[in-house]
Design goal:
The protein has helices at 35-44, 76-90, 102-113, 116-124, 136-148, 158-161, 170-184, 190-200, 230-246, and strands at 7-10, 15-18, 25-29, 52-55, 68-73, 153-157. With 255 residues, it is of the alpha/beta class. Strands 4-2-1-3-5-6 form a 6-stranded mixed beta sheet, sandwiched between helices.
Length: 255
């Protein structure tokens, strides 16, 4: 089957994944919002046979109004919690970019000596204590918001894609998968879509999807409720409360 073109703005890496031969749909994701779910969906649909990598700066490039764009989003509270765990894992390896520079080494040492609550607060406040430096998350949020206001855009949700295996809903998962495939111009039978949904969550098939599992931890909804303390909640509402409301996760800041 002829592969479809997937261009992925992985904002964390500032890279575009593209197959230059076919038409494009741009996928905007943020760290720990379930990029693997989108990639795995297309593997399961036999529509993502490979990709090449081309550097691009998503914070400067203008969005094409006629270009189809898919935004993968997640409750930012869960995203922050997941990202603390991811950084804890990433910063213990030599693969972290720039680990040999004195400034980054000092930042990593400070991070590793902090408590989980302190790390979470540093990410939420976008402070200098974050290993990526001050303001990185705000740039991501501005880029995601800008993309969401562009024409020809579909917003997908981590919470809808994980299904019951991720503490979500299987019916919402099937609806979301159908929306994505339709947006892509793909046709699948109901049985094929059910099969995709059943296989989408988790890392049971590591041999088949080795590049999609390195950052997977639990893939669960609502973990922030057992991690956020009062300081985290206060700081989050001040910086990201409006985004939570804009993307439909809360009606107001009274949570």
């Amino acid at each position: 089957m002829k592969s479809r073109l997937v261009v992925m703005f992985l904002l964390f890496f500032n890279m575009t994944y593209a197959d230059q031969e076919y038409g494009h749909v741009f996928i905007y994701t943020m760290p720990k919002t379930g990029t693997h779910l989108i990639k795995k969906l297309f593997y399961l649909a036999n529509e993502f046979d490979g990709y090449s990598v081309n550097p691009i700066n998503p914070f400067k490039d203008e969005l094409n109004p006629s270009q189809r764009k898919l935004i993968q989003y997640r409750d930012l509270r869960d995203m922050f919690v997941s990202y603390v765990y991811f950084l804890d894992m990433q910063l213990t390896t030599d693969t972290f970019r720039g680990t040999r520079t004195p400034l980054v080494k000092k930042s990593i040492e400070k991070w590793n000596s902090a408590t989980f609550d302190e790390k979470l607060l540093a990410l939420i406040e976008d402070s200098d204590d974050c290993p990526y430096g001050r303001g990185w998350m705000q740039r991501f949020m501005d880029a995601i918001y800008r993309a969401s206001t562009s024409p020809n855009t579909l917003i997908t949700r981590f919470e809808h894609l994980v299904g019951s295996k991720g503490n979500g809903d299987d019916e919402l998962q099937i609806v979301q998968i159908k929306e994505i495939l339709t947006f892509w111009g793909l046709e699948k039978t109901d049985d094929e879509i059910l099969k995709i949904g059943n296989d989408l969550h988790g890392i049971a098939d590591v041999k088949r999807f080795p590049d999609l599992t390195h950052s997977f931890r639990t893939g669960q909804i609502g973990e922030w409720k057992t991690h956020f303390n009062e300081d985290n909640i206060r700081a989050f509402k001040e910086r990201y409360g409006d985004y939570l409301i804009y993307f439909g996760y809360e009606e107001d800041n009274n949570w």
